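Budget justification aside, the reviewers requested a transparent look at the raw inputs and outputs of the sequence design task funded under Objective 1. We therefore reproduce one unedited record. The lines immediately below are the structure tokens for a 354-residue chain.
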């Protein structure tokens, strides 16, 4: 009886079209933000924040960007990690060659650099789609991996090919502790998620969904496929570039080209599929599933007191993880966000289902 809309009257178009039209949703969101900023830093240890929460939030940014491209615009991409790498190396070169630049400016410029790369590789989407577009983005992954490994300018002439970042400073304040890095990542995630949510509700977002549902019909009613597809590639790569910069500077600290390999691209695609295609909230669900579940499976034998070798544990973890992915695809193809939406709908009419 607590999740009802009785008495919540909308007296203007602005109130009817707000982001969270139900008051309970607004209170829940405020509670989650208060817990994230005030409660979680007190309850969670520095190890949990550094090893679990920060990577989950950063990958959620990349998953949101990929969801815009795949879930909202219907353009298959297998090269999301390459665009993350483009953002990471762009941020590294900006920090090295312009040491006095504010880190927030570095993030934005890294995202713009990744967006330019995404637009360049998004041009083939005007002629091809489906499996052929997936292969084209896969070629982008391999090409950018080769560039990261062989172009010495990107690594500032590093002989080993790996790069190390300096301490992040924001407005003169060094961000060395996991807690300060967490607040930075959390703020960036909140801003980008809000922008993405409003963007998919705008004219541009409706154009993306029209292209996804039927591109020929969308073109007939006046939507420009060139603008819609390239804007989706640009926004998706922009988010991936910012996620890559945060992944390199905040989470890793130092990395080599293998840090942005095709395995990461597949994991990002799994996040979108499991979390829910065409859902911003599903990107967070998918990121939490991919990041937390393998760690839980890794610790399960110890919790249950079952002696098992390291090799068998690794193989068993991969088998269970893959089986759960297949199970979710069969049982709930719309993803975890669909389960959340169904639960909210049942709660709205409880205890009088019909």
């Amino acid at each position: 009886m607590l999740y009802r809309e009785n008495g919540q009257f909308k007296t203007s178009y602005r109130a009817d079209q707000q982001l969270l039209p139900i008051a309970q949703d607004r209170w829940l969101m405020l509670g989650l933000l208060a817990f994230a900023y005030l409660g979680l830093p007190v309850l969670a240890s520095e190890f949990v924040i550094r090893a679990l929460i920060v990577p989950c939030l950063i990958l959620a940014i990349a998953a949101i960007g990929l969801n815009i491209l795949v879930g909202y615009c219907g353009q298959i991409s297998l090269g999301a990690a390459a665009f993350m790498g483009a953002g990471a190396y762009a941020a590294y070169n900006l920090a090295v060659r312009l040491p006095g630049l504010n880190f927030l400016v570095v993030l934005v410029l890294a995202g713009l650099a990744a967006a330019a790369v995404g637009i360049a590789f998004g041009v083939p989407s005007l002629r091809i789609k489906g499996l052929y577009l997936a292969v084209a983005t896969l070629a982008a992954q391999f090409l950018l991996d080769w560039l990261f490994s062989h172009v010495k300018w990107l690594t500032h002439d590093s002989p080993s090919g790996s790069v190390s970042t300096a301490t992040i400073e924001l407005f003169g304040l060094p961000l060395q502790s996991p807690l300060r890095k967490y607040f930075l990542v959390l703020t960036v995630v909140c801003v980008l998620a809000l922008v993405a949510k409003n963007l998919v509700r705008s004219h541009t977002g409706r154009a993306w969904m029209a292209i996804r549902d039927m591109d020929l019909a969308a073109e007939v009613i006046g939507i420009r496929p060139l603008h819609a597809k390239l804007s989706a590639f640009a926004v998706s790569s922009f988010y991936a570039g910012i996620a890559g910069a945060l992944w390199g500077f905040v989470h890793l600290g130092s990395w080599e080209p293998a840090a942005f390999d095709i395995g990461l691209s597949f994991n990002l695609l799994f996040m979108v599929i499991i979390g829910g295609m065409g859902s911003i909230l599903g990107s967070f669900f998918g990121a939490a599933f991919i990041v937390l579940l393998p760690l839980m499976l890794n610790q399960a034998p110890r919790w249950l007191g079952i002696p098992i070798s390291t090799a068998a544990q690794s193989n068993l973890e991969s088998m269970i993880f893959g089986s759960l992915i297949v199970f979710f695809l069969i049982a709930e193809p719309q993803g975890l966000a669909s389960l959340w939406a169904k639960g909210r709908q049942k709660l709205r009419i409880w205890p009088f289902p019909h």
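Residues 188 and 319 are 35 Å apart (CA to CA). The domain at 48-349 is CATH 1.10.3470 (ABC transporter involved in vitamin B12 uptake, BtuC). Computational costs for records of this kind are itemized in the attached budget.
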